[in-house]
Amino acid sequence: MKDRIACLGYGALTPLGQTARQTYEAVRKGESALGLLPQGSPLGQDAVVSLFEDRSVLDNLSFFDTIGIKAASQAIEASGIDPSSPRVSFILSTIKGNIEALGSEESDYSIAESAARIASYFHNPNPPLVVSNACISGLAALLQGRRMLLSGRCDYAVVIGAEVQSRFIISGFQSLKAVSASPCKPFDDSRDGLNLGEASAAIVLGRSEEGWEIADGAVRNDAYHISSPSRTGEGSYKVLRYVLDSIDVKDLAFVNVHGTATLFNDEMEAVALDRAGLGDIPINSLKGFLGHTMGAAGVIESILSILSCEDGVVLPTRGFSEIGVSRHVNISSEERPCEGRAFIKLMSGFGGVNGALLFRKGGRV
Amino acid sequence: MRVIRTVNIPSGTDLVALYREQMEEYPKFFKMDILCKLGFLGTELLLKSDPDRFVPREDRAVLTFSRFGCECDDRHYSGTIDDYPSPALFVYTLPNIVSGEIAIRNRYEGETAAFIIEKYDFERIRSIVGDVFQDRKTGSAIVAWIDCRTETEWECQVSLVEK
User: Fold this and answer.
1) Domains of chain A, with CATH numbers?
2) For residue A365, what pLDDT band results from cuts at 50, 70 and 90?
3) What is the ipTM for the molecules in this complex?
4) Residue B139 CB: number of other CB atoms within 10 A?
5) Average pLDDT, stretch B124-131?
6) Nearest-CA distance from B129 to chain A in Å?
7) Neighbour tally for A115: CB within 10 Å
8) Which of B35, B109, B117 to mutate to test the interface with A (most CBs of A within 10 A)?
9) Nearest CA in chain B to A90
10) Alpha helix positions (H), chain A
11) To 10 degrees, the CA torsion angle through A278, A279, A282, A284?
12) Using an 8 Å Cβ cutoff, are A177 and A193 in contact?
Protein backbone atom coordinates (compact mmCIF):
# COMPACT_ATOMS: atom_id res chain seq x y z
CA MET A 1 0.00 0.00 0.00
CA LYS A 2 2.98 2.32 -0.40
CA ASP A 3 1.10 4.18 -3.12
CA ARG A 4 -1.79 5.10 -0.87
CA ILE A 5 -1.43 8.83 -0.18
CA ALA A 6 -3.56 9.90 2.75
CA CYS A 7 -4.42 12.96 4.82
CA LEU A 8 -2.63 12.55 8.17
CA GLY A 9 -3.62 15.78 9.86
CA TYR A 10 -5.75 18.88 9.30
CA GLY A 11 -5.55 22.45 10.43
CA ALA A 12 -7.55 25.59 9.74
CA LEU A 13 -8.07 29.13 10.82
CA THR A 14 -11.19 30.75 9.42
CA PRO A 15 -13.59 33.54 10.36
CA LEU A 16 -15.86 30.73 11.63
CA GLY A 17 -13.37 28.94 13.87
CA GLN A 18 -9.88 28.62 15.30
CA THR A 19 -9.55 25.05 14.03
CA ALA A 20 -10.86 22.85 11.24
CA ARG A 21 -13.20 21.12 13.70
CA GLN A 22 -14.58 24.43 15.03
CA THR A 23 -15.14 25.67 11.51
CA TYR A 24 -16.91 22.45 10.64
CA GLU A 25 -19.13 22.62 13.74
CA ALA A 26 -20.07 26.20 12.89
CA VAL A 27 -21.00 25.17 9.35
CA ARG A 28 -23.09 22.28 10.71
CA LYS A 29 -24.95 24.83 12.87
CA GLY A 30 -25.65 26.88 9.76
CA GLU A 31 -23.43 29.81 10.72
CA SER A 32 -21.99 32.04 8.03
CA ALA A 33 -19.12 34.52 8.18
CA LEU A 34 -20.49 36.62 5.31
CA GLY A 35 -21.22 40.28 5.95
CA LEU A 36 -21.36 43.58 4.08
CA LEU A 37 -18.18 45.68 4.16
CA PRO A 38 -18.85 48.46 6.66
CA GLN A 39 -19.22 52.06 5.46
CA GLY A 40 -15.81 53.62 5.01
CA SER A 41 -13.93 50.32 5.05
CA PRO A 42 -10.42 50.64 3.59
CA LEU A 43 -11.10 47.46 1.64
CA GLY A 44 -13.89 49.00 -0.44
CA GLN A 45 -17.65 49.07 -0.44
CA ASP A 46 -20.76 47.37 -1.78
CA ALA A 47 -19.34 43.89 -1.31
CA VAL A 48 -20.30 41.06 1.01
CA VAL A 49 -17.14 39.38 2.29
CA SER A 50 -15.91 36.96 4.95
CA LEU A 51 -13.05 38.42 7.00
CA PHE A 52 -11.08 37.58 10.13
CA GLU A 53 -11.82 39.82 13.12
CA ASP A 54 -8.67 38.94 15.04
CA ARG A 55 -5.76 40.23 12.94
CA SER A 56 -2.99 39.68 15.47
CA VAL A 57 0.34 38.58 14.05
CA LEU A 58 3.27 36.45 15.16
CA ASP A 59 6.55 38.32 15.81
CA ASN A 60 7.83 40.18 12.75
CA LEU A 61 5.51 38.33 10.41
CA SER A 62 2.71 39.53 8.17
CA PHE A 63 -0.87 38.48 8.79
CA PHE A 64 -0.68 36.26 5.71
CA ASP A 65 2.38 34.42 7.00
CA THR A 66 0.81 34.21 10.47
CA ILE A 67 -2.37 32.47 9.38
CA GLY A 68 -0.42 30.11 7.13
CA ILE A 69 1.80 29.13 10.06
CA LYS A 70 -1.11 28.72 12.47
CA ALA A 71 -3.04 26.35 10.20
CA ALA A 72 0.12 24.41 9.38
CA SER A 73 1.02 24.09 13.08
CA GLN A 74 -2.31 22.42 13.79
CA ALA A 75 -1.99 19.99 10.89
CA ILE A 76 1.61 19.15 11.79
CA GLU A 77 0.72 18.57 15.44
CA ALA A 78 -2.26 16.38 14.51
CA SER A 79 -0.13 14.26 12.18
CA GLY A 80 2.77 13.94 14.62
CA ILE A 81 5.42 14.55 11.93
CA ASP A 82 8.71 16.37 12.48
CA PRO A 83 8.50 19.35 10.10
CA SER A 84 12.25 20.00 10.34
CA SER A 85 13.02 16.69 8.62
CA PRO A 86 14.56 16.84 5.13
CA ARG A 87 11.96 14.24 4.12
CA VAL A 88 9.16 16.82 4.60
CA SER A 89 8.19 19.24 1.80
CA PHE A 90 6.17 22.43 2.17
CA ILE A 91 3.71 23.49 -0.52
CA LEU A 92 1.93 26.82 -0.31
CA SER A 93 -1.24 27.58 -2.26
CA THR A 94 -2.18 31.22 -2.65
CA ILE A 95 -3.25 33.58 -5.39
CA LYS A 96 -2.15 36.95 -4.07
CA GLY A 97 -0.23 36.14 -0.88
CA ASN A 98 0.72 39.27 1.03
CA ILE A 99 -0.44 41.63 -1.75
CA GLU A 100 -1.68 44.15 0.83
CA ALA A 101 2.00 44.99 1.41
CA LEU A 102 2.44 46.13 -2.21
CA GLY A 103 4.02 49.56 -2.16
CA SER A 104 4.81 49.41 1.55
CA GLU A 105 8.33 50.25 2.65
CA GLU A 106 8.33 48.02 5.74
CA SER A 107 7.35 44.63 4.40
CA ASP A 108 7.70 42.81 1.12
CA TYR A 109 4.93 41.03 -0.66
CA SER A 110 6.92 38.42 -2.55
CA ILE A 111 5.02 35.13 -2.47
CA ALA A 112 8.29 33.20 -2.77
CA GLU A 113 9.56 34.89 0.39
CA SER A 114 6.33 34.29 2.31
CA ALA A 115 6.65 30.60 1.51
CA ALA A 116 10.29 30.61 2.59
CA ARG A 117 9.43 32.31 5.91
CA ILE A 118 6.65 29.81 6.61
CA ALA A 119 8.91 26.81 5.89
CA SER A 120 11.77 28.27 7.93
CA TYR A 121 9.43 28.91 10.87
CA PHE A 122 9.21 25.11 11.08
CA HIS A 123 12.99 24.78 10.49
CA ASN A 124 12.32 22.87 7.30
CA PRO A 125 15.50 22.63 5.20
CA ASN A 126 13.86 22.26 1.76
CA PRO A 127 12.92 25.10 -0.59
CA PRO A 128 9.12 25.38 -0.50
CA LEU A 129 6.98 25.18 -3.62
CA VAL A 130 4.22 27.71 -4.34
CA VAL A 131 1.28 26.66 -6.49
CA SER A 132 -0.54 29.72 -7.83
CA ASN A 133 -3.07 28.33 -10.26
CA ALA A 134 -5.93 30.82 -9.81
CA CYS A 135 -8.99 29.55 -7.95
CA ILE A 136 -7.99 25.89 -8.20
CA SER A 137 -4.65 26.53 -6.44
CA GLY A 138 -5.52 24.60 -3.26
CA LEU A 139 -6.69 21.58 -5.20
CA ALA A 140 -3.66 21.74 -7.50
CA ALA A 141 -1.34 22.00 -4.47
CA LEU A 142 -2.87 18.87 -2.91
CA LEU A 143 -2.48 17.05 -6.23
CA GLN A 144 1.14 18.18 -6.45
CA GLY A 145 1.73 16.97 -2.87
CA ARG A 146 0.32 13.58 -3.79
CA ARG A 147 2.58 13.38 -6.83
CA MET A 148 5.69 14.37 -4.87
CA LEU A 149 4.99 11.57 -2.42
CA LEU A 150 4.37 9.07 -5.22
CA SER A 151 7.66 10.07 -6.83
CA GLY A 152 9.41 9.13 -3.57
CA ARG A 153 11.12 12.50 -3.17
CA CYS A 154 9.58 13.08 0.24
CA ASP A 155 7.76 11.16 2.95
CA TYR A 156 5.39 13.94 3.99
CA ALA A 157 4.00 17.05 2.36
CA VAL A 158 2.57 19.96 4.33
CA VAL A 159 0.06 21.60 1.99
CA ILE A 160 -1.06 25.06 3.13
CA GLY A 161 -3.75 27.16 1.44
CA ALA A 162 -4.07 30.77 2.58
CA GLU A 163 -5.62 34.00 1.36
CA VAL A 164 -5.98 37.44 2.92
CA GLN A 165 -8.41 39.94 1.42
CA SER A 166 -7.33 43.38 0.32
CA ARG A 167 -8.53 46.39 -1.62
CA PHE A 168 -6.42 45.06 -4.50
CA ILE A 169 -8.38 41.80 -4.79
CA ILE A 170 -11.83 43.17 -3.98
CA SER A 171 -11.58 46.07 -6.44
CA GLY A 172 -10.28 43.65 -9.09
CA PHE A 173 -13.16 41.21 -8.80
CA GLN A 174 -15.56 44.15 -8.68
CA SER A 175 -14.02 45.55 -11.87
CA LEU A 176 -14.85 42.19 -13.49
CA LYS A 177 -18.42 42.54 -12.17
CA ALA A 178 -18.08 39.24 -10.35
CA VAL A 179 -18.84 40.38 -6.79
CA SER A 180 -22.26 40.34 -5.13
CA ALA A 181 -23.41 42.94 -2.62
CA SER A 182 -25.54 40.26 -0.94
CA PRO A 183 -24.73 36.83 0.50
CA CYS A 184 -24.02 34.55 -2.47
CA LYS A 185 -26.64 32.16 -3.82
CA PRO A 186 -24.87 29.23 -5.48
CA PHE A 187 -26.82 27.59 -8.33
CA ASP A 188 -29.82 29.78 -7.52
CA ASP A 189 -32.00 31.45 -10.10
CA SER A 190 -31.28 34.89 -8.61
CA ARG A 191 -27.53 34.43 -8.08
CA ASP A 192 -25.58 37.57 -8.89
CA GLY A 193 -21.97 36.96 -8.02
CA LEU A 194 -19.46 35.73 -5.51
CA ASN A 195 -18.33 36.84 -2.05
CA LEU A 196 -14.61 37.00 -1.38
CA GLY A 197 -13.28 35.49 1.81
CA GLU A 198 -10.12 34.93 3.79
CA ALA A 199 -9.03 31.69 5.40
CA SER A 200 -6.09 29.43 6.00
CA ALA A 201 -6.10 25.65 5.98
CA ALA A 202 -3.51 22.90 5.91
CA ILE A 203 -3.33 19.17 5.31
CA VAL A 204 -0.34 16.93 6.01
CA LEU A 205 -0.09 14.20 3.37
CA GLY A 206 1.81 10.95 3.80
CA ARG A 207 1.75 7.28 2.86
CA SER A 208 -0.75 5.42 5.02
CA GLU A 209 -3.29 2.64 4.88
CA GLU A 210 -5.46 4.62 7.28
CA GLY A 211 -7.36 7.84 6.89
CA TRP A 212 -8.74 9.70 3.90
CA GLU A 213 -6.88 8.96 0.70
CA ILE A 214 -6.38 11.34 -2.19
CA ALA A 215 -7.05 8.54 -4.63
CA ASP A 216 -6.82 10.42 -7.92
CA GLY A 217 -6.83 13.88 -9.41
CA ALA A 218 -6.41 15.88 -12.58
CA VAL A 219 -6.15 19.42 -13.94
CA ARG A 220 -7.33 20.38 -17.43
CA ASN A 221 -7.62 23.64 -19.36
CA ASP A 222 -10.71 24.76 -21.30
CA ALA A 223 -8.46 26.36 -23.94
CA TYR A 224 -11.34 28.77 -24.40
CA HIS A 225 -11.03 32.10 -22.57
CA ILE A 226 -8.86 33.54 -19.78
CA SER A 227 -11.73 34.87 -17.68
CA SER A 228 -14.88 33.02 -18.84
CA PRO A 229 -15.53 29.33 -18.36
CA SER A 230 -16.20 27.11 -21.36
CA ARG A 231 -19.90 26.98 -22.23
CA THR A 232 -19.65 23.24 -22.70
CA GLY A 233 -17.80 22.80 -19.39
CA GLU A 234 -14.99 21.20 -21.37
CA GLY A 235 -12.17 21.18 -18.83
CA SER A 236 -14.46 20.52 -15.89
CA TYR A 237 -16.02 17.59 -17.74
CA LYS A 238 -12.56 16.23 -18.60
CA VAL A 239 -11.33 16.27 -14.98
CA LEU A 240 -14.53 14.58 -13.79
CA ARG A 241 -14.20 11.92 -16.47
CA TYR A 242 -10.56 11.42 -15.46
CA VAL A 243 -11.22 10.76 -11.77
CA LEU A 244 -14.28 8.62 -12.57
CA ASP A 245 -11.77 6.08 -13.96
CA SER A 246 -10.92 5.38 -10.33
CA ILE A 247 -14.40 5.05 -8.80
CA ASP A 248 -17.87 3.71 -9.48
CA VAL A 249 -20.41 6.52 -9.53
CA LYS A 250 -22.55 4.51 -7.11
CA ASP A 251 -19.81 4.72 -4.47
CA LEU A 252 -19.75 8.54 -4.52
CA ALA A 253 -21.34 10.26 -1.53
CA PHE A 254 -21.34 13.68 -3.21
CA VAL A 255 -19.47 16.14 -5.37
CA ASN A 256 -18.35 19.28 -3.54
CA VAL A 257 -18.43 21.73 -6.44
CA HIS A 258 -16.86 25.16 -6.81
CA GLY A 259 -20.28 26.89 -6.81
CA THR A 260 -19.04 30.48 -6.67
CA ALA A 261 -22.54 31.81 -7.45
CA THR A 262 -21.45 33.67 -10.55
CA LEU A 263 -23.84 33.15 -13.46
CA PHE A 264 -21.24 31.50 -15.67
CA ASN A 265 -19.41 29.30 -13.18
CA ASP A 266 -22.45 27.52 -11.80
CA GLU A 267 -24.02 27.02 -15.22
CA MET A 268 -20.75 25.62 -16.54
CA GLU A 269 -20.45 23.19 -13.62
CA ALA A 270 -24.01 22.00 -14.14
CA VAL A 271 -23.22 21.25 -17.79
CA ALA A 272 -20.00 19.43 -16.86
CA LEU A 273 -21.69 17.35 -14.13
CA ASP A 274 -24.51 16.41 -16.50
CA ARG A 275 -22.09 15.45 -19.27
CA ALA A 276 -20.13 13.31 -16.82
CA GLY A 277 -23.30 11.44 -15.77
CA LEU A 278 -23.36 12.98 -12.29
CA GLY A 279 -26.70 14.79 -12.54
CA ASP A 280 -28.24 12.63 -9.81
CA ILE A 281 -25.30 12.61 -7.37
CA PRO A 282 -25.78 15.06 -4.47
CA ILE A 283 -23.71 18.20 -4.91
CA ASN A 284 -23.01 21.12 -2.61
CA SER A 285 -21.18 24.45 -2.56
CA LEU A 286 -19.70 25.83 0.66
CA LYS A 287 -19.28 29.43 -0.54
CA GLY A 288 -22.32 30.58 1.47
CA PHE A 289 -20.43 29.88 4.72
CA LEU A 290 -16.93 31.23 4.11
CA GLY A 291 -17.16 32.97 0.76
CA HIS A 292 -14.66 32.27 -1.99
CA THR A 293 -11.40 31.93 -0.09
CA MET A 294 -9.33 31.68 -3.30
CA GLY A 295 -5.98 30.00 -2.56
CA ALA A 296 -7.40 28.51 0.66
CA ALA A 297 -10.62 27.24 -0.92
CA GLY A 298 -9.38 23.91 -2.28
CA VAL A 299 -7.84 22.98 1.06
CA ILE A 300 -10.54 24.19 3.50
CA GLU A 301 -13.40 22.85 1.35
CA SER A 302 -11.66 19.46 1.08
CA ILE A 303 -11.30 19.33 4.87
CA LEU A 304 -14.95 20.30 5.50
CA SER A 305 -16.05 17.70 2.96
CA ILE A 306 -13.92 14.99 4.61
CA LEU A 307 -15.35 15.78 8.07
CA SER A 308 -18.92 15.79 6.76
CA CYS A 309 -18.50 12.56 4.78
CA GLU A 310 -17.04 11.04 7.95
CA ASP A 311 -20.30 11.99 9.72
CA GLY A 312 -22.40 10.69 6.82
CA VAL A 313 -23.83 14.05 5.78
CA VAL A 314 -23.83 16.26 2.71
CA LEU A 315 -23.45 19.81 3.96
CA PRO A 316 -26.16 22.20 2.77
CA THR A 317 -25.69 24.78 0.04
CA ARG A 318 -26.36 27.91 2.04
CA GLY A 319 -28.00 30.62 -0.06
CA PHE A 320 -29.54 28.26 -2.60
CA SER A 321 -33.31 28.15 -2.92
CA GLU A 322 -34.56 27.88 -6.51
CA ILE A 323 -32.66 26.08 -9.24
CA GLY A 324 -31.10 28.46 -11.74
CA VAL A 325 -29.01 26.28 -14.07
CA SER A 326 -30.04 24.64 -17.34
CA ARG A 327 -29.18 21.04 -16.40
CA HIS A 328 -30.52 18.79 -13.67
CA VAL A 329 -28.35 18.84 -10.55
CA ASN A 330 -29.05 17.30 -7.15
CA ILE A 331 -28.59 20.24 -4.79
CA SER A 332 -30.25 21.31 -1.54
CA SER A 333 -30.21 24.09 1.02
CA GLU A 334 -30.72 21.44 3.71
CA GLU A 335 -28.23 19.04 5.22
CA ARG A 336 -28.76 15.55 3.81
CA PRO A 337 -27.61 12.06 4.86
CA CYS A 338 -25.16 10.19 2.63
CA GLU A 339 -23.70 6.72 2.58
CA GLY A 340 -20.80 6.65 0.15
CA ARG A 341 -17.20 6.43 1.28
CA ALA A 342 -15.80 8.76 -1.35
CA PHE A 343 -16.38 12.22 -2.77
CA ILE A 344 -15.07 14.46 -5.54
CA LYS A 345 -13.81 18.00 -4.96
CA LEU A 346 -14.32 20.07 -8.12
CA MET A 347 -13.00 23.56 -8.93
CA SER A 348 -12.49 25.97 -11.81
CA GLY A 349 -10.66 29.26 -12.22
CA PHE A 350 -9.35 32.08 -14.36
CA GLY A 351 -6.89 31.08 -17.01
CA GLY A 352 -9.36 28.34 -18.01
CA VAL A 353 -8.16 25.89 -15.36
CA ASN A 354 -10.30 23.13 -13.91
CA GLY A 355 -9.42 20.51 -11.32
CA ALA A 356 -10.90 17.47 -9.61
CA LEU A 357 -9.67 15.37 -6.71
CA LEU A 358 -11.09 12.05 -5.61
CA PHE A 359 -11.06 11.47 -1.85
CA ARG A 360 -11.71 7.98 -0.48
CA LYS A 361 -12.10 6.80 3.08
CA GLY A 362 -9.66 4.23 4.45
CA GLY A 363 -10.31 0.93 6.20
CA ARG A 364 -12.22 -2.09 5.00
CA VAL A 365 -14.96 -1.50 2.45
CA MET B 1 12.08 12.94 -19.73
CA ARG B 2 13.64 14.56 -22.77
CA VAL B 3 14.06 18.23 -23.65
CA ILE B 4 13.22 18.41 -27.37
CA ARG B 5 14.16 22.04 -27.93
CA THR B 6 14.46 25.34 -26.10
CA VAL B 7 14.22 29.00 -27.02
CA ASN B 8 15.32 32.05 -25.08
CA ILE B 9 14.11 35.61 -25.39
CA PRO B 10 16.95 37.84 -24.20
CA SER B 11 16.17 40.49 -21.62
CA GLY B 12 15.28 43.83 -23.19
CA THR B 13 14.24 42.41 -26.61
CA ASP B 14 11.71 44.59 -28.47
CA LEU B 15 8.73 42.25 -28.11
CA VAL B 16 6.42 44.10 -30.48
CA ALA B 17 9.06 43.93 -33.20
CA LEU B 18 9.54 40.23 -32.48
CA TYR B 19 5.78 39.68 -32.68
CA ARG B 20 5.51 41.48 -36.03
CA GLU B 21 8.44 39.54 -37.42
CA GLN B 22 7.37 36.10 -36.22
CA MET B 23 3.65 35.74 -36.52
CA GLU B 24 0.37 36.66 -38.15
CA GLU B 25 -2.05 39.14 -36.55
CA TYR B 26 -3.15 38.09 -33.05
CA PRO B 27 -4.71 41.25 -31.60
CA LYS B 28 -4.98 39.81 -28.09
CA PHE B 29 -1.18 40.02 -27.92
CA PHE B 30 -1.40 43.76 -27.26
CA LYS B 31 -3.66 43.26 -24.24
CA MET B 32 -1.25 40.88 -22.54
CA ASP B 33 1.03 41.75 -19.63
CA ILE B 34 4.79 41.26 -19.94
CA LEU B 35 4.67 37.72 -18.49
CA CYS B 36 2.10 36.62 -21.07
CA LYS B 37 3.82 38.35 -23.95
CA LEU B 38 7.04 36.51 -23.16
CA GLY B 39 5.42 33.10 -22.63
CA PHE B 40 3.29 33.55 -25.70
CA LEU B 41 6.10 34.64 -28.03
CA GLY B 42 8.47 32.05 -26.59
CA THR B 43 5.96 29.34 -27.42
CA GLU B 44 5.44 30.77 -30.92
CA LEU B 45 9.19 30.59 -31.59
CA LEU B 46 9.33 27.11 -30.12
CA LEU B 47 6.47 25.69 -32.17
CA LYS B 48 6.51 27.62 -35.42
CA SER B 49 7.89 24.71 -37.41
CA ASP B 50 5.50 22.16 -35.89
CA PRO B 51 3.33 20.72 -38.66
CA ASP B 52 0.48 19.59 -36.42
CA ARG B 53 -0.20 22.73 -34.42
CA PHE B 54 -3.69 24.00 -33.55
CA VAL B 55 -5.29 20.55 -33.36
CA PRO B 56 -7.02 20.20 -29.96
CA ARG B 57 -5.04 17.86 -27.71
CA GLU B 58 -5.30 16.81 -24.09
CA ASP B 59 -1.89 15.16 -23.78
CA ARG B 60 0.23 18.32 -23.59
CA ALA B 61 0.67 20.34 -20.39
CA VAL B 62 1.74 23.98 -20.05
CA LEU B 63 3.81 24.61 -16.91
CA THR B 64 5.33 27.94 -15.97
CA PHE B 65 7.87 28.69 -13.27
CA SER B 66 9.05 32.02 -11.88
CA ARG B 67 10.22 33.80 -8.79
CA PHE B 68 8.47 37.13 -9.30
CA GLY B 69 5.15 35.79 -10.61
CA CYS B 70 3.18 38.71 -12.04
CA GLU B 71 4.62 41.45 -9.83
CA CYS B 72 4.99 43.80 -12.84
CA ASP B 73 1.29 43.66 -13.59
CA ASP B 74 0.48 43.84 -9.85
CA ARG B 75 2.12 47.29 -9.81
CA HIS B 76 0.28 48.36 -12.98
CA TYR B 77 -3.11 47.28 -11.71
CA SER B 78 -2.48 48.74 -8.28
CA GLY B 79 -1.88 52.14 -9.90
CA THR B 80 -5.42 52.10 -11.37
CA ILE B 81 -7.36 51.28 -8.17
CA ASP B 82 -7.82 54.84 -6.90
CA ASP B 83 -9.01 56.07 -10.25
CA TYR B 84 -10.77 53.35 -12.20
CA PRO B 85 -9.76 49.76 -11.44
CA SER B 86 -8.93 48.15 -14.76
CA PRO B 87 -10.42 44.69 -15.33
CA ALA B 88 -8.10 44.24 -18.32
CA LEU B 89 -5.07 44.67 -16.03
CA PHE B 90 -6.53 42.82 -13.05
CA VAL B 91 -7.00 39.56 -14.89
CA TYR B 92 -3.28 39.43 -15.64
CA THR B 93 -2.40 39.69 -11.94
CA LEU B 94 -2.76 35.91 -11.76
CA PRO B 95 0.50 34.09 -12.57
CA ASN B 96 -1.28 31.24 -14.34
CA ILE B 97 -2.91 33.40 -17.03
CA VAL B 98 0.13 32.95 -19.27
CA SER B 99 -0.38 29.17 -19.29
CA GLY B 100 -4.03 29.82 -20.20
CA GLU B 101 -3.06 32.13 -23.07
CA ILE B 102 -0.70 29.50 -24.46
CA ALA B 103 -3.39 26.82 -24.09
CA ILE B 104 -5.96 28.96 -25.92
CA ARG B 105 -3.64 29.82 -28.78
CA ASN B 106 -2.48 26.24 -29.31
CA ARG B 107 -5.74 24.49 -28.32
CA TYR B 108 -4.06 22.58 -25.53
CA GLU B 109 -6.74 21.03 -23.32
CA GLY B 110 -4.27 19.33 -21.00
CA GLU B 111 -2.99 20.36 -17.57
CA THR B 112 -1.88 23.96 -17.02
CA ALA B 113 -0.14 25.29 -13.93
CA ALA B 114 1.95 28.10 -12.50
CA PHE B 115 4.62 27.45 -9.88
CA ILE B 116 6.63 29.98 -7.91
CA ILE B 117 10.07 28.92 -6.70
CA GLU B 118 12.79 30.99 -5.06
CA LYS B 119 15.28 30.74 -7.94
CA TYR B 120 15.91 29.04 -11.26
CA ASP B 121 16.89 25.44 -10.55
CA PHE B 122 16.94 23.08 -13.51
CA GLU B 123 16.91 19.87 -11.46
CA ARG B 124 14.04 21.10 -9.34
CA ILE B 125 11.98 22.10 -12.37
CA ARG B 126 12.77 18.73 -13.95
CA SER B 127 11.44 16.95 -10.82
CA ILE B 128 8.21 18.94 -10.78
CA VAL B 129 7.65 18.38 -14.50
CA GLY B 130 8.28 14.68 -13.84
CA ASP B 131 5.53 14.81 -11.18
CA VAL B 132 3.11 16.27 -13.72
CA PHE B 133 3.94 13.40 -16.10
CA GLN B 134 2.31 11.06 -13.55
CA ASP B 135 -0.96 12.17 -15.15
CA ARG B 136 -2.21 9.20 -17.20
CA LYS B 137 -2.73 11.25 -20.36
CA THR B 138 0.09 13.80 -20.29
CA GLY B 139 2.90 12.91 -22.68
CA SER B 140 4.60 16.24 -23.33
CA ALA B 141 4.75 19.74 -21.91
CA ILE B 142 5.63 23.30 -22.68
CA VAL B 143 7.87 24.22 -19.73
CA ALA B 144 8.77 27.85 -19.22
CA TRP B 145 10.93 29.79 -16.82
CA ILE B 146 9.64 33.34 -17.21
CA ASP B 147 10.80 35.73 -14.58
CA CYS B 148 10.20 39.46 -14.88
CA ARG B 149 11.83 41.69 -12.35
CA THR B 150 10.74 44.71 -14.40
CA GLU B 151 9.30 45.17 -17.89
CA THR B 152 12.80 45.39 -19.34
CA GLU B 153 14.71 42.96 -17.11
CA TRP B 154 13.68 39.34 -17.46
CA GLU B 155 14.69 35.77 -17.98
CA CYS B 156 12.61 33.81 -20.48
CA GLN B 157 13.35 30.25 -21.48
CA VAL B 158 10.67 28.06 -23.03
CA SER B 159 11.15 24.36 -23.74
CA LEU B 160 9.24 21.52 -25.31
CA VAL B 161 9.66 18.43 -23.15
CA GLU B 162 8.55 14.86 -23.71
CA LYS B 163 7.87 12.25 -21.06
Assistant:
1) 5-207 (3.40.47.10), 213-360 (3.40.47.10)
2) very low
3) 0.97
4) 15
5) 98
6) 10
7) 26
8) B109
9) B117
10) 20-28, 63-79, 111-121, 137-150, 167-175, 234-243, 263-275, 287-290, 297-310
11) 100
12) yes
Whole-angstrom Cα distance, residue A80 to residue A78? 6
Cβ neighbours of B93 in A, within 8 Å: 96, 168, 172
Shortest alpha-carbon distance between residue B33 and chain A (Å): 13
Residues 71-110 of B with CB under 8 A from A: 71, 74-75, 77-78, 81, 85-87, 90-91, 93-97, 99-101, 103-104, 106-110
| pLDDT band, very low/low/confident/very high, at A363 (cuts 50, 70, 90) | low
Q: Are residues A175 and B97, on separate chains, in Cβ contact within 8 Å?
A: no
Q: Which residue of B has its CA nearest to A43?
A: B81
Inspect the interface and report whether the beta carbons of B95 and A172 lie closer than 8 Å.
no
Contacts of A226 in chain B (CB under 8 A): 91, 97, 100-101, 104
Map out the domains of chain B with their CATH numbers. Answer: 2-50+57-162 (3.40.47.10)
Return the ∠ at Cα B14 (arms to B9 and B16), rounded to 5°. Answer: 105
